[in-house]
TrEMBL record:
Name by which UniProt lists this protein: Amino acid ABC transporter ATP-binding protein, PAAT family
GO molecular function: ABC-type amino acid transporter activity; ATP binding; ATP hydrolysis activity
Family matches, as PANTHER family: AMINO ACID IMPORT ATP-BINDING PROTEIN, HISTIDINE TRANSPORT ATP-BINDING PROTEIN HISP
Taxonomy of the source species: Bacteria, Pseudomonadati, Pseudomonadota, Gammaproteobacteria, Oceanospirillales
Family: Belongs to the ABC transporter superfamily.
Keyword Glycosyltransferase: no
Pfam families in UniProt: ABC_tran (PF00005)
Native species: Modicisalibacter muralis
Record SMART domains: AAA (SM00382)
């Protein structure tokens, strides 16, 4: 369903993504791990065109984008098909939980306000925050804010949700409720590409774990295989540090 070919990103002289190839099946849950500074966020950001790649092709469903010559219309369509959940939630501080979830539906999908708000209420039910519809981010816990961030991605009905370390900014007490919501989505077979250090989550729900180092996918496999029998020394060394 998603095919990434030769995805390359350079910052100055540094090649941060080195011709990444990756296919993702519909309903597949992929966890990306690897040392800091290795290009994990850049991979997700390039797929969503938050960063413009230097080379490569990104196909999502029937949309195929040559990233070097992507036109605005294609970029907007690619963004519509890929939703992003940020480490720091990235909610609008001056909008309520309901408005944060409805905003993209109104601006990107051009829904009417009543229709978008009705959908946002459904989403708030599903993420267990129906009573927070009119609350502003500052009055919510980190866990609640990130659930709104995930709710916003759910509302978009994107083909894939990209999660960039969604629990890394949270106080420990809120991590489980956010992972719980992500697991619920995984059981519903929402296609997801998740950068995380939560190995328990990877073990429980990932179909495949990718280990990245130096802008490349060094090794990949089902979690039970990758964690117990890593083939590459770099994978072994990384796992020794975090498991
Ligand atoms: P990770 O998410 O694996 O920690 P990143 O994708 O954030 O790694 O970063 C990979 C490399 O690219 C790092 O060396 C980082 O400093 C660099 N980098 C990321 N974003 C930028 C940017 N906007 N400008 C310059 N360098 C960047
Ligand atoms: Mg990162």
């Amino acid at each position: 369903m998603i095919a990434i070919q030769g995805l390359t990103k350079r910052f100055g002289d540094a090649t941060v993504l080195d011709a990444i190839d990756l296919n993702i099946e519909r309903g597949e849950i992929i966890v990306v791990i690897g040392p800091s500074g290795t290009g994990k966020s850049t991979l997700l950001r390039c797929v969503n065109f938050l960063e413009r790649p230097n080379a490569g092709r990104i196909q999502v469903g029937d949309l195929s984008v040559d990233t070097t010559r992507a036109r605005k219309k294609e970029i907007l369509e690619l963004r519509r098909r890929t939703a992003f959940v940020f480490q720091n939630y990235a909610l609008f501080a001056n909008k309520t939980a309901l408005e944060n979830i409805a905003e993209g539906l109104i601006v990107v999908n051009r829904w009417s306000k009543p229709k978008a708000h009705a959908r946002a209420r459904e989403i708030l039910e599903r993420i267990g925050l129906a009573d927070k519809a009119d609350a502003y981010p500052a009055s919510m816990s980190g866990g609640q804010q990130q659930r709104v961030g995930i709710g916003r991605a759910m509302a978009a009905q994107a083909e894939v949700i990209l999660f960039d370390e969604p629990t890394s900014s949270l106080d420990p007490e809120w991590v489980e409720e956010v992972l719980g919501l992500m697991k619920q989505l995984a059981y519903e077979r929402q296609t997801m590409l998740v950068v995380t250090h939560e190995m328990g989550f990877a073990r429980d729900v990932a179909d495949r774990v990718l280990f990245m180092d130096g802008g490349r996918i060094v090794e990949q496999g089902p979690p039970e295989e990758l964690f117990s029998k890593p083939k590459d020394e770099r994978t072994r060394s990384f796992l020794r540090k975090i498991l």
